[in-house]
Write a structure and sequence with these properties.
Number of strands: 11
Radius of gyration: 19 Å
InterPro entries: ATPase_NBD (IPR043129), GppA/Ppx_hydrolase (IPR050273), Ppx_GppA_N (IPR003695)
Protein name: Phosphatase
GO molecular function: pyrophosphatase activity
CATH class of the largest domain: Alpha Beta
Pfam families: Ppx-GppA
């Protein structure tokens, strides 16, 4: 069996095709195709409130490519989820309707809460009992925070703070204050809070960090990595550090969000599992097939 997950974010759109493996009842997904394309929908939406005609055309072209790839791989089922930019766009629903009419593909506009839930479904397997975790998921348009006591999620909240939105200067100071207050209220006197970072930017940033034997990085290392990256221009990040252009211009903005959340939670350690929204979508596709 083959399934696919498509995540249309504010910065980029990703598709992963996986085969479903069943080892004596233990289900896992083996990646057989992964495609990422920088649509940059957040650039349109966070500045003008809608997605421009040219961007809509790129969405349709990209989904056509994804559709052909799924046909070649003989995918049994797939799910498309769109997050912050498309769900906030004035013409988001109209674009989804046109995609459905022209391509026969359904785009699901998911809320920040649903996004957090889908990521939670895969993250929870990485957690240990008797530990407190603050999960920080930074996208192009929003940040989802989840607080865990062991494997149990106690509370979560979505904030309109994201790497692209921050780069565009479209993050209201009040939103920063609300995120700060939420962390203080929910973390309060807890000690030894471990941060979990998900998202493409923190995965790339982690490549520059020294980790301990458990794969954890100290917040001081995170700050050092931020300072290291700040020495390079966007062109140098692309040519010397071999970053994608759409990563090179936002990674420092994303790192500011992760660092701020950790500092407010008094968290000194972070780990970054190789998981994200696309993995949560994949799991939901499989569960839908089962039911």
């Amino acid at each position: 069996m083959k399934i696919a997950a498509i995540d249309i974010g504010s910065n980029a759109a990703r598709m992963q095709i996986s085969s479903v493996l069943n080892d004596e009842g233990k289900i896992s997904f083996k990646k057989i195709e992964y495609v990422r394309f920088a649509l940059r929908l957040g650039h349109d939406v966070f500045s003008s409130g809608k997605i421009h005609y040219e961007s809509e055309a790129r969405i349709k072209k990209l989904l056509t490519v994804y559709k052909l790839l799924m046909e070649l791989h003989e995918v049994d089922a797939y799910l498309i989820c769109a997050t912050s930019a498309l769900r906030e766009a004035e013409n988001g629903l109209n674009i989804c309707e046109r995609v459905k009419l022209e391509l026969g593909m359904t785009i699901n506009l998911i809320s920040g809460e649903k996004e957090a839930e889908m990521i939670n479904n895969v993250i929870v397997h990485e957690l240990e009992d008797n530990k407190t975790y603050l999960h920080i998921d930074v996208g192009g348009g929003s940040t989802e925070l989840n607080l865990y006591n062991g494997k149990v999620k106690e509370t979560s909240q979505s904030f309109k703070i994201g790497s692209v939105r921050l780069m565009e200067g479209k993050v209201n100071k009040d939103v920063w204050k609300k995120m700060h207050a939420w962390i203080q209220e929910n973390v309060h006197n807890r000690t030894d809070v471990i941060a979990i970072g998900t998202g493409g930017n923190i995965s790339k940033l982690f490549e520059f960090l020294e980790k301990d034997e458990n794969g954890l990085a100290d917040i001081k290392r995170l700050e050092e990595a931020r300072e290291y990256l700040s020495q390079f221009s966007i062109e140098e990040k692309i040519n010397k550090l071999k970053m994608n252009p759409d990563r090179a211009d936002v990674i420092e903005y994303a790192s500011e969000i992760y660092f701020s959340a950790m500092k407010w939670a008094k968290s000194t350690k972070m780990f970054v599992p190789d998981l994200g929204l696309k993995d949560g979508i994949m799991l939901e596709v499989y569960q839908n097939l089962k039911s």
